[in-house]
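Key result, reporting period 2: structure in, sequence out.
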């Protein structure tokens, strides 16, 4: 599929007392970009839970914070699948402001059975679309 980009405006609620984006909120931006990537391909997570009985969860992540984002800035959050396995995806994600790389990370997403919470094969349509 390639790299998916999602524009974000930094709101006051995203910042800390120093006026910069609170570190945990970068993870929220990553999460939303992955959700919007799925949505752009026709996959709604609530439907996946109800119809396919699967959920996607963060299994592991590694993040590098390089430069701060600040209130009211327009940033771009990207998500790209770099590895697809039977029950997980590895995403490369970045947050940029213009030419400045602010944050980058790798996020492993596992597919689980929505009831048992045990690993489950990623639905074929999703695997095919995102690989």
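The corresponding designed sequence is given below.
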């Amino acid at each position: 599929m390639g790299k998916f980009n999602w524009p974000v405006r930094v709101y006051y609620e995203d910042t800390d007392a120093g006026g910069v984006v609170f570190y945990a909120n970068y993870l929220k931006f990553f999460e939303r970009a992955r959700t919007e990537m799925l949505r752009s391909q026709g996959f709604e997570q609530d439907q996946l839970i109800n119809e396919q009985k699967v959920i996607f969860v963060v299994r592991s992540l590694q993040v590098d914070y390089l430069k701060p984002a600040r209130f009211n800035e327009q940033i771009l959050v990207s998500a790209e699948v770099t590895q697809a396995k039977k029950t997980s995806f590895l995403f490369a994600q970045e947050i940029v402001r213009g030419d400045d790389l602010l944050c980058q990370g790798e996020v492993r997403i596992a597919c689980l059975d929505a009831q048992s919470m045990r690993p489950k094969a990623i639905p074929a349509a999703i695997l095919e679309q995102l690989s």
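Residues 79 and 93 are 5 Å apart (CA to CA). The chain has a mean pLDDT of 96. This case is discussed further under Risks and Mitigation.
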